[in-house]
Amino acid sequence: MSAAPILSTKPELSGKTVRRAKVPVQPIVAVLAAVLLLGVPFWLVISTAGKNQAEALNPNLNAPSQWQLFENFGQVFSEGRMLTGFFGSLLVMVPAVFGVLILGSMAAWVLGRRGGKGMAVIYAVAISGIVLPPAVVTIVLLLRQLGLAGTAVGMIGVYMGMYLSTVIFFVTGFVRTIPPELEEAARVDGASPLKVFLKIILPLLVPVLATATILICLYIWNDVFYALFVVGGRLDTLPLNLYQVASSGLYLQNWHLIFAYITLMSLPLLITFVVAQRKIISGITSGAVK
Amino acid sequence: MTAVMSPQDVSRVEDTSKARRHGGKRGGKNDHPLWFLIPALAVLVVFFFIPTLFNFIYAFTNWSSFKSAIGFTGLDNFITLFNSGTLLNALRVTLVYAVLVAIFQNLFGLVLALLLERDTRVNRAVRVAFFIPVIMSALAVGYIFQALLKPEGALNGILSFLTGNHVSIAWLGDTTWTIVVVALVHAWKWMGLSMLIYLAGLKTINDDVLEAARLDGASWWTTFREIRFPLLAPAVTFNVATALLGSMNGFDVVQATTEGGPGGSTELLNIFIFRTFGQGLFAQATTMSLVLFLAVAILAFPLIRMLRKREDVL
Predict the structure, then answer these.
(1) A176 CB near a chain B CB, below 8 Å?
(2) Are the beta carbons of B51 and A142 separated by less than 8 Å?
(3) Interchain contact A229–B (C-beta under 8 A)
C-alpha cells in the first residue's frame, strides 16, 4: 500500500539532492493510511461516546442523532468512580516511578563504575527482569505473608520489582559514558560518595532518567494485569475501573459509557504527550538504537 | 560539563587521582561503596526473585482457596494440565500469538517508517498520530476493536458498503483465524513504537552510502534490500525482541476482545493464569506461571544472542 509511491520515485541523480525528489502521492498515502487505520477506530470511540444508550447498542460509524458527549462523561464520572481511579493510579505510579529512579540510579552508578566478575554477575542478575516475566501468582502469596496484600504499598513494591531492571539497564550504560574525572574533581575536594552521587552524577543522569520515566509511567498507568492480581477490588485505578465498567453485567453492551470512559481515561497521557511530544519521541528513540 | 573543563584541568585531575590511588590506602573502590546496591537489590529480591523462587515450589503443591493446608503433590499439577491438553494448548497459542505479533508489528512499523521517512509537516503530524495508540491503555484498545469487529460492527459495515453485499463476518468468533485478528490488534497498538525505532535507525544511515548506491544506478528496492535493511539490524534486534517477549507476556488485548475464546483458541498463558486464579486453583495458576517463566527464559537468551550475532556480521 505504501510501497507503491516510494517505488515509483525515480532516483534523483543530479546535484546534491540526497533525499528523493518530492512526490505529491506520498502525503496523500500518508494521510489516507492515518484516516483508515486511526481515524476509523477513533471516530468510533468519539461518536459512540456521544450517543444515547439505544443508538450505542450496536456501535457503528454513524454520527449520533443528538450529541450527548458531556452527559455521558458526567455519568461515567459519577458511576465509574473516575476520580478515585485517577487518584488511585497516581498513588501507585508516582512513588513507584520515584523509587525505581532513585534506587536504580544508585545501583547503576556503582555497577557502571566498579569492575570485576562479581559486579558483572550482579549486573546480569539485576537486568534479567527486563525479559523474565514476574511471578504474578506467588507474588500475591508473598504480599499476604508480608501483610501487604491489596495495599498500595504492595502494588508499589511489585511495580518497583518489575521496572528496576529497566532503569538499571538504561542508567548503567549511560553512567559508563560519563568521564570519571568529573567525580574525581569533587572527590579531591573532600566530597563523600553520597555527595558525589547527589551533586555530580544525578544531575548528569537527567536525560536518561527522563526516558525511563516516560516508559515506566506508560506501563504503570496502563497496567491492568498485575493490578487485577494485587489490588483488584481493593484499590481503584483507572484501568481496573474500566475493566469493571466493561465486564460487569450492569454495563454490558453500554458502549456509550465504555467509550466515554476510555476517552476520559486516555486524556491525561494524551495531553502530556501532545504538550511534550518532541521530547518524548526523541527520549524513547535515543535509548533503543545505539 | 565536560566542555567547561580545559585539557589541562583534566590532566591535572587525572594526576591527582593517580597520586591518590598509589599513595592513600583507600583505593578507588571506596569511592563507589557497595551499600549503594543494597536498596535496589533488596527490592529486587523481595518483589521479584522470591516470588519467582516460590513459583518453583508452589507449582508442586495443592495450594488452593478451598483448603487452608498446603501439601506437596509432586508433578500432579503438570500431569493434570498436560493430560487435559490445556498446558500444550496455552503454550502453543502463546507462541503463535507472539510470533504473529512480532511479524505484524515489525512489518507495519517498518512500512510506516519508510512511508513517513521524509521530514515534512504532514509526515511529522502523521507520525505523532500513529504514536497515540502506544500511549493508550491496551485494555481500552481491546474494547475498541471488540466493538469494531462485531458481526454487525463497523468493519463489516464498511465492507458491506464497499462490496454492495451484506457482510457479517464473525472476526472474533473463528477458532482458526481469530488469533490472527487479535495479533493484528496487538500489533496495531504497538506499531507506532516500532515505527519510531525504525525511523531513528534510518536516520543513522550515512547519506553518502545511499548517494553512492544511487549513482551506481541502484533502484529503491535494491538500495533498501542490500544497504538500508542490513544497516537497520540494531533496530530490528530491539523491535523483534521487545515485540516477541512483550507479547508472550500479553493479556490485556486478548482479555478485552475474546477472553481466550472461542473454544480456547486464543487462550494465552496469562489468560489461563488469570482465569484459574479467579477460580481459586492457585497451584495450577502457579504451574502455568512457571511454564511461562521457563518458556520466556528458554527463548529470550538464544533469541537475543542470535539477533546480536546478526549485527556483528555487518
Answers:
(1) no
(2) yes
(3) yes
Q: Do A74 and A265 meet the contact criterion of CB atoms below 8 Å apart?
A: no
Contact B51 A129 (CB under 8 A): no
**B196 lies in some domain:** yes
Nearest to residue A138, comparing CAs of B297, B49, B66? B49
The reply to whether omega before B262 is within 30° of 0 (cis) is yes
Alpha carbon dihedral A21, A22, A23, A24, in 10-degree steps, equals -160
Q: How far apart are the first and last CA of chain B?
A: 35
Task: Please tell me what DSSP assigns to residue A24.
Answer: S
Give all strands (DSSP E) within chain B, no chain letters: none
| Structure letter (DSSP) for residue A10 | P
Residue B40 inside a domain? The answer is no
Residue B306 lies in domain: 96-313
CB count within 10 Å of CB B3 equals 5
Q: Is residue B296 part of a domain?
A: yes
- B5 occurs within a structural domain: no
A positions 50-69 inside 8 Å of B (CB):
58-61
pTM over 0.90: no
Tell me if B234 sits within 8 A of B126, measured CB to CB: no
Count of A-B CB contacts under 8 Å:
307
**A144, amino acid identity:** R
**What CATH number has the domain bearing residue B304?**
1.10.3720.10
Q: Which residues of chain A have pLDDT under 70?
A: 1-23, 249-252, 286-290
CA dist A198 to A68, A105, A115, A192, B136, Å? 52, 10, 22, 10, 35
Q: List CB contacts (< 8 A) between A228 and chain B.
A: 274
Residues B34-67: tens digit of each pLDDT:
899 999 999 999 999 999 999 999 999 888 888 8
d(CA B185, CA A114): 45
Taking an 8 Å cut-off on Cβ atoms, the answer to whether B196 and A13 are in contact is no
How many distinct structural domains can be found in chain B? 1
Residues A24 and A39: their CA atoms lie apart, in Å, by 22
Sign of CA dihedral A76, A61, A32, B145: positive
Instruction: Spell out the residues 6+ positions from residue A2 whose beta carbon is closer than 8 angstroms to its own.
Output: A29, A30, A33, B111, B112, B114, B115
Distance from the Cα of A242 to chain B's closest Cα (Å) equals: 8
Domains and CATH numbers, chain A: 3-79 (no CATH), 82-247 (1.10.3720.10)
Q: For the range B32-37, what are the long-range contacts, defined as Cβ-Cβ under 8 Å and sequence gap of 24 or more?
A: B32/A109, B32/A110, B32/A113, B32/A114, B32/A193, B33/A110, B33/A193, B34/A110, B36/A106, B36/A107, B36/A109, B36/A110, B36/A193, B36/A197, B37/A106, B37/A107, B37/A110, B37/A111, B37/A122
A194-198, B5-9, B185-189, B285-289: least confidently modelled range:
B5-9
Is the model's pLDDT at B4 over the cut of 60?
no
A14-52, pLDDT tens digit by residue?
Answer: 444 455 555 578 888 999 999 999 999 999 999 988 888
Q: What is the 3-state secondary structure (H, E, C) of B72-86?
A: ECCCHHHHHHHHCCH
d(CA B227, CA B210): 8
